Amino acid sequence: MSLILMGSLIGISTSAWAKGEENVVMAEDIVKGAEDFLLERLGGGGEALEIDVQYRGENLVLPEGKLKLDYQMRARNRQTGRFPLTLLVKVDDRLHKRLQLNANVLMNQTVLRMARPINRGERIKAEDIEVDTITSDRPHRKALTQLKDAVGMEATRNLNTGSILTVRAVKPAALVDKNDRVVIIAEKGLMKITAPGRILEKGFQGSMVAVENLQTKKTVYGKVVDPTTVEVIF
């Protein structure tokens, strides 16, 4: 007997061959075939997806011949949740069984959680965050997953211990704020001029800000280089 395991979705089929002496399909093989089918169709790695297939039937005893297991499901635009499956069991291209299976698919997702509460406007430090893995059928689409995307950012609202950090919970933190004292640097060729300055508005790295030259009392505009330096181009 030759065994073909097939999975079709919107007219697309794939197959793999296995050979055996008995015309019996074990229940665990039916479940494994459904798991493999879903992994291929949903495009997830074995580590990312957790698939639980419910099959309450027994082993299948079938006539001799070429056996085909054809798994089918409706098109889905999601990777997780409940997936009803239909299994068509054929021998020599003749339908012998039509089985209904259900699968529940969960996703393992890395997220960042707050290790302590912080207030709106506070800058987030590495020790404020812990990395966690959650398993859910509804992954957090906006969750931050890497420390570099959170450390040094500013909280846009009060964040409690255990809350998951999302893209909307943080924003770039200002490098300089109004009334901060900085060094104004102006360079042209071999000439370099420095002067003490006072920031007149909040600014971010690389942004242009208004700064008062404390020597001349004039307002100039320069680029924020770091928390203590503004560069004026002339």
C-alpha-based Rg, rounded? 31 Å
Helicity, in percent? under 10%
Overall mean pLDDT stands at: 86
Q: How many individual β-strands?
A: 16
Low-confidence stretches: 1-6, 8-19
Individual helix count: 1
Largest sheet: 7 strands, mixed
Oligomer: single chain
User: What's the CATH first level of the largest domain?
Assistant: Alpha Beta
- The CATH architecture designation of the largest domain is Roll
> Would you tell me which CATH topology of the largest domain applies?
Thiol Ester Dehydrase, Chain A
The domain tally reads 3
Q: Span between N and C termini?
A: 84 Å
Principal-axes shape call: rod-shaped
Provide the succession of SSEs.
Answer: EEEHEEEEEEEEEEEEE
Structural class: mainly beta
Strand content: over 45%
How would you summarize what this structure contains?
By secondary structure, the chain is mainly beta. Helix content is 7%, strand content 48%.
Structural key phrases:
single chain; 234 residues; Thiol Ester Dehydrase, Chain A; Type Iii Antifreeze Protein Isoform Hplc 12; 3 domains; seven-stranded mixed beta sheet; five-stranded mixed barrel; 7% helix; rod-shaped
